[in-house]
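Sequence, structure tokens reproduced for reference:
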Amino acid sequence: MNYWWVNQNQTYKDEINGGFLWSPKTRSDGGRNQFYENMKDVSPGDVIFSFCDTRIKAIGRASGVVQTAPKPDFGNAGINWSKEGWLVPVEFKELTNIIRPKDHIEQLSVYLPEKYSPLQKNGNGLQSVYLAKIGNAMAQQLIGLIGAEYHSTLTALTSTVEIESTSDDVFENAIRGRTDISATTKSQLINSRLGQGLFKTNVRLNEKACRVTGVSDPQHLRASHIKPWRLSDDTEKLHGCNGLLLAPHVDHLFDSGFISFSDIGQLLISSKLNTDVLSAWGISLKKSVGKFNSEQSKFLQFHRTNIFKQ
């Protein structure tokens, strides 16, 4: 297991909530950047310390290996970054005991890497740094400062990573046999069927929890296609607005057409569904789940017209 330090001043909210790290592959001038190259060395189970606004605010654990991916929608952040880069799926948990490394720089400075350090010797950040590798000794110093919360957080993250990494792969022969797309794209499209990989990452940029149950822990949620995977083109299969994070029982109802949603978030219930099922699962017949954005609404229109059992 390796330890990493990621500087997320511009992208903290998107990456923490979305469950990923993303960087360009090269500098804007096409030159090599070691802090981007490091993305290729992250392995499942590696620990990431999230640094933002001079503080370590969260701990992450990698749940997969690097893949080529389009730049997520970071808003005004990274407007000059390339449209394609490296993505590593990571499950994060924010800390209660947030630490400011500069306050402990005398203790930490001796353990900073001689080359490609995440911090200056005086404890100030470095503008050009994204993902830096840190040694075990440095990591242990940070762990000591965070205290017992580090270990409870890591335990929770380990559970999530194990579940994701042991899921069965489902390979579609039609995609495997295609010659017009790369192996990376094939993998992304196949994984999207199970709500895994890049698709789930993209969905989490818009959705933070199951809209029906309120559950927000990603290990208990599925990234469910609104327009079914089998009916979606390559772009739609990975489109973050073509998905919802749903608890498994809600996912079943939605995929089967027993429920749908209006654009303003009203729960729509099929006449084919025995409402005793909803009562047993604690789902209100008058549930409102919140308004959907315009892109989601386009996919929901398809679901209401073609999947929902009136």
User: Anything to note?
Assistant: Residues 163-171 have pLDDT under 50 and may be disordered. The two ends are 52 Å apart (CA to CA). Residues 148-165 form the longest helix (18 residues).
